[in-house]
Amino acid sequence: MNKLLITGASGFVGTALCRIAINRGFSVLGMQRQASSTASFESLVSDLSKTQSFAFLDRYSLDGIIHLAANSDVNACENFPKESYLLNVVASKNLATYAKKRNIPFVFASSDQVFDGEKGNYSTQDQALPLNQYGKQKLEAENACLASYTKSVVCRLPLMLGAHGGYEKNFIANLKEGKVQKLFTDEIRSVAQVDEIAKSLIEALSWGGGLYHLGGPKPMNRYEIGLYLAEKYHLASALLEPAKQADVSMAAARPKDVSMLSINP
Length: 265
Hints:
By secondary structure, the chain is of the alpha/beta class. It has a domain of 184 residues: NAD(P)-binding Rossmann-like Domain (Rossmann fold). It is 33% helix and 21% strand. The protein has a seven-stranded parallel beta sheet with strand order 3-2-1-4-5-6-10, with helices on both faces. A three-stranded mixed beta sheet has the order 7-9-11. It has a two-stranded parallel ribbon with strand order 8-12. It is globular, with a radius of gyration of 18 Å.
């Protein structure tokens, strides 16, 4: 396998995935919504929410697809479900169908938000009952991908940390600016380093199909994550305030405990 299409290439996970894939000898075709002059890979600009056919990919000799692109803003999905559905569900199904036509490995990145959070330590055998539109769309996309192409590999991802983007970067920036951080003690996530998840997604290309959990080594609540990051960067933890989900008004409901048991070959 050599030529790898990665959607969402400019995102937090996508950036790490492209870097690691290149280091492992892959030729990466990174699909993103806007052109980038700093990308270290061949870039393909496309708005997946407006893409009905992927026949244009025929000119590339693709050996595999890892589909990361999504609208992962939980509140935005709740407020604008029709718009997010086009990317989160329709595009995912169409990409899986295209991978089937080419008979190449297809890995779809899903989310721990497919669970209602009442149990924790979820396995792939546990029933998915999402509370918000984002989780519902991810679950529908999972089922659509697996139904469209039995060789689809669906990977449910945890909360990821990493210094170059995502939650960690924004959190540290806010602390340095002196902003108080209200962190939930009743929202528990599996937590993993983004590079480790990226490595697993590459390995998933060879798994042949099915549903997997890529959980982190230790479940943590948001407040515990904040304390960990403050200590990591030698920042004062005085700005961290323990809170409950009910203390903060949010458009979308959040599950309380979506920790996952890691299940992969």
